[in-house]
Structure to design on (322 residues):
């Protein structure tokens, strides 16, 4: 049973970056306004996430590490949010079964913090700890007990690149949150709370500077906001193409095609534009559970999405070339 857990966890926690994504989403769910990430050896040696969120009460610490322990579906509103972000209720349990994990947390009304340790899947007793606010999760030596998965890890540099990409996606869709990321003790990113455009410029560079095209369009239940790279920006934007659906990073061919066609149609430019765009729509109109760990969604009416995105981009591009 324990072995099955480990194998299952190895599938869920495909690589350090998948664990990091789960932890960052937990911190955001907890209402954190400041989140710090420390990684060592691409995350395989250490993933540490510290937040200033609501914390976890002593009695709930062990529960948080248990399988199917989600506390997140207690109202209809929650159900909607959970649906739109695709939670599964076993991120922490999975991580705990493939690492040495220490969870330290202080609930808002608690006089001090508590820590629990999960040692090879066994959850210890809570012990008093010191922490001024929020939650700290430290996962060490990922996959120490899952050699088959550890074998598939790439170099620390590559695993770090995946972690950094996961971090960027989440930081881009949460510009009001303060973030830091360090790797092997060296600061990589330090992001103050800022506007969406400033965040895009900080993370993705010049294409999102003052010449970027601002987009904010609504049609019926659809809203598209964000920024597309300046039409005068000559560099290809392939590495700066970010699209979010209800706050979640998504890779979608239909959307990518609509954006590219708009550039072709209006500017007669055939290239890979840079963009950071946020689509909001009724959660009922999109299926996010195509694959829980992947970045794909299925739109109920993908033609409508194509037309809307194409329309928004065309309109913004036409206004600059007029
Ligand atoms: P899920 O996020 O799907 O609920 P997880 O295994 O990721 O499942 O987390 C289990 C539970 O632990 C959460 O539902 C939440 O109550 C608690 N939790 C995890 N991380 C944090 C955090 N950073 N701050 C506060 N509570 C947390
Ligand atoms: Mg979670």
């Amino acid at each position: 049973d324990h072995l099955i857990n480990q194998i299952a966890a190895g599938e869920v926690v495909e690589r350090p970056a998948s664990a990091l994504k789960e932890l960052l989403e937990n911190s955001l769910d907890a209402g954190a306004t400041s989140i710090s990430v420390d990684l060592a050896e691409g995350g395989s040696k250490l993933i540490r996430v510290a937040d200033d969120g609501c914390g976890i009460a002593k009695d709930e610490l062990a529960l948080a590490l248990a399988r199917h322990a989600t506390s997140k579906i207690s109202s209809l509103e929650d159900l909607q949010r959970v649906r739109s972000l695709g939670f599964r209720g076993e991120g922490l349990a999975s991580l705990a079964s493939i690492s040495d994990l220490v969870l330290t947390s202080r609930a808002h009304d608690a006089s001090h913090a508590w820590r629990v340790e999960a040692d090879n899947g066994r959850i210890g007793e809570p012990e008093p700890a010191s922490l001024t606010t929020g939650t700290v999760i430290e996962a060490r030596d990922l996959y120490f007990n899952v050699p088959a998965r550890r074998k598939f890890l790439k170099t620390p540099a590559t695993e770090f690149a995946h972690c950094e990409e996961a971090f960027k996606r989440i930081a881009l869709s949460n510009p009001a949150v303060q973030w830091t990321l360090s790797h092997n003790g060296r600061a990589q990113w330090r992001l103050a709370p800022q506007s969406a455009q400033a965040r895009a410029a900080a993370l993705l560079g010049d294409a999102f500077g003052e010449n970027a095209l601002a987009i904010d369009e609504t049609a019926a239940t659809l809203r598209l906001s964000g920024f597309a790279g300046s039409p005068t920006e000559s560099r290809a934007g392939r590495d700066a193409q970010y699209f979010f659906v209800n706050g979640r990073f998504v890779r979608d061919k239909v959307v990518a095609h609509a954006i590219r066609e708009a550039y072709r149609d209006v500017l007669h430019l055939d290239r890979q534009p840079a963009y950071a765009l946020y689509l909001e729509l009724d959660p009922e109109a999109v299926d996010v559970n195509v694959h829980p760990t992947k970045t794909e969604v299925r739109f109920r009416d993908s033609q409508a999405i194509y037309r809307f995105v194409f329309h928004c981009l065309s309109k913004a591009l036409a206004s600059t070339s007029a």
Q: What stands out?
A: The longest helix spans residues 302-321. The mean pLDDT is 88. Residues 22, 25-26, 87, 91 surround magnesium ion (ligand 2) (CB under 6 Å). The chain has ten helices and 16 strands.
